[in-house]
């Protein structure tokens, strides 16, 4: 995944607050149409760019949240789902407009949602050219108007705040400074194999097959080798012939097993090898061959751990729910990309077929691409099984997790579900190195 990790900045507020003006100031061009006609910004406008002090960013300009008609309601839904996916929410207000309306519903909705999702929030009070005369007309001072706006913030003192006229010189610098104050603190990168260290060897089991491309290993295999070398942990690599190991011929099976165990014992065996990391398709053999106390996990769990930001426990808990499903229970399989589906597609064919075999009468729905139910509709499901999510941004993934957590619906993913379908005890074993204190 050579995707740039962009900071997502969303611009929210009422009609005519100056959201599109802000977008254009930031992008320094006419990205969005600016006009006093309500509803000018019809859909979400996105711009990607580099801001010197912030790095790569994606900026989203949204429609006014106070548009009243049917189309307005549709735009509002899109705007609110954009709000779930930002790192920084910029709440733009025209303080005079806000004061005149005497209402803060929109501002409170943005501020509270963003706080609930743990995002950064900043407020930009945008002074239009005629703000003084409009203030006079309603007999208020600017301070009173600003105070009124700030009262929508759950954390008044802690929310970065800027008063500016976006059409004036210096506005861009001031806005960038505001965004810098709102910038979330960088997350610590997730270690690939956080529990590995010291001088005992790690044994990688990589069963190449006919389809394996020559001259290179798969990305997770390369990643593991590189991470271990950086840690100066000795790495040993071997390959079992899966076909021979699975023939009905006991002699051949024993030979493959003995060959593998000889190598394992040469490295120090049980107590000497700190971890065996295998391709998931060989988990049945490794689980059966290796003594029960030898730590064993798979490349696939390693990747899941990293892609979910280290929060494997959530997915482990969700996967255990598979064992409690009953006929009539509803499961949602969610696939974030819309790729061409092959005959043996994992999400639409393989997993449903295996689940229906194991739990006859189970009810399976699908969600593809961008569609993902809101918390209210999620509650119909006992479990959501999500794809690896390689096509969605970190922000989209965490927005989905937030919805699941809010709906209190457990979540698993393709890799862990397939492992559970293979063997529930093997699944617990491959999770253990990552979650040593887990209940099972
Ligand atoms: N003088 C001045 N006018 C502004 C400012 N921001 C917005 N406007 C005007 O307010 C109207 C609505 O602005 P727009 O950015 O389209 O608002 P949006 O609906 O929030 O996207 C336009 O006529 C803008 O020219 C500002 O900072 N200063
Ligand atoms: Mg607009």
What is the compact description of this entry?
This protein is of the alpha/beta class and 440 residues long. It contains 18 helices and 14 strands. The strands form three sheets. Strands 2-3-1-4-5-6 form a six-stranded mixed beta sheet, sandwiched between helices. It has a four-stranded parallel beta sheet with strand order 8-7-9-10, sandwiched between helices.
Bound molecules: guanosine-5'-diphosphate, magnesium ion
Structural class: alpha/beta
**Total strand segments:** 14
Instruction: Please tell me the overall pLDDT.
Output: 90
How many structurally independent domains?
3
Description:
- Helix content is 40%, strand content 16%.
- The protein has helices spanning 19-27, 70-83, 95-101, 105-116, 131-137, 142-150, 171-182, 219-230, 242-245, 250-266, 283-289, 299-307, 312-320, 346-358, 375-378, 394-407, 414-422, 424-431, and strands spanning 7-13, 45-51, 55-61, 88-93, 120-126, 161-164, 202-205, 235-238, 275-278, 296-298, 330-335, 363-368, 383-386, 411-413.
- The strands form three sheets. A six-stranded mixed β-sheet has the order 2-3-1-4-5-6, with helices on both faces.
- The longest helix has 17 residues, at 250-266.
């Amino acid at each position: 995944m050579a995707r740039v990790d962009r900071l997502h900045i969303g611009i929210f507020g009422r009609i005519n607050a100056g959201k599109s003006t802000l977008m254009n100031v930031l992008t320094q061009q006419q990205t969005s149409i600016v006009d006093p006609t309500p509803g000018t910004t019809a859909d979400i406008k996105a711009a990607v760019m580099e801001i010197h002090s912030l790095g790569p960013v994606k900026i989203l300009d949204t429609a006014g949240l106070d548009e009243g008609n049917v189309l307005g309601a549709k735009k509002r839904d899109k705007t609110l789902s954009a709000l779930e996916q930002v790192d920084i929410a910029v709440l733009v207000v025209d303080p005079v407009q806000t004061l005149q309306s005497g209402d803060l519903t929109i501002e409170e909705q943005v501020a509270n949602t963003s706080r609930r999702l743990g995002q950064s929030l900043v407020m930009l009070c945008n002074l239009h050219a005629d703000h003084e005369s409009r203030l006079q007309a309603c007999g208020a001072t600017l301070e009173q108007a600003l105070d009124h706006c700030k009262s929508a913030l759950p954390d008044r003192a802690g929310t970065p705040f800027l008063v500016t006229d976006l059409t004036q010189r210096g506005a861009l610098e001031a806005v960038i400074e505001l965004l810098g104050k709102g910038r979330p603190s960088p997350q610590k990168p997730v270690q690939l194999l956080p529990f590995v260290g010291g001088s005992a060897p790690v044994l990688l089991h990589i069963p190449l097959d006919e389809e394996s491309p020559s001259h290179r290993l798969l990305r997770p295999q390369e990643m593991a080798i590189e991470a271990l070398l950086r840690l100066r942990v000795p790495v040993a690599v071997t390959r079992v012939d899966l076909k021979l190991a699975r023939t009905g011929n006991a002699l051949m099976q024993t030979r493959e097993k003995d060959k593998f165990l000889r190598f394992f014992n040469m490295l120090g065996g049980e107590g000497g090898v700190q971890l065996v990391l295998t391709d998931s398709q060989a988990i049945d053999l490794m689980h059966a061959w290796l003594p029960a106390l030898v730590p064993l996990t798979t490349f696939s769990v390693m990747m899941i751990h990293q892609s979910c930001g280290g929060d494997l426990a959530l997915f482990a808990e969700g996967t255990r729910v598979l064992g409690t499903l009953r006929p009539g229970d509803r499961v949602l399989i969610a696939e974030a990309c819309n790729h061409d589906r092959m005959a043996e597609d994992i999400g639409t064919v393989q997993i449903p077929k295996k689940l229906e075999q194991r739990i006859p009468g189970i009810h399976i729905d699908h969600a593809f691409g961008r569609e993902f139910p809101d918390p209210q509709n999620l509650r119909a499901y006992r479990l959501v099984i999500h794809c690896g999510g390689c096509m969605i941004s970190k922000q989209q993934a965490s927005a989905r997790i937030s919805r699941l957590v809010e709906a209190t619906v457990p979540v698993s993913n393709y890799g862990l579900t397939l492992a559970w379908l293979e063997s529930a005890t093997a699944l617990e074993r491959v999770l253990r190195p990552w979650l040593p204190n887990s209940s099972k």
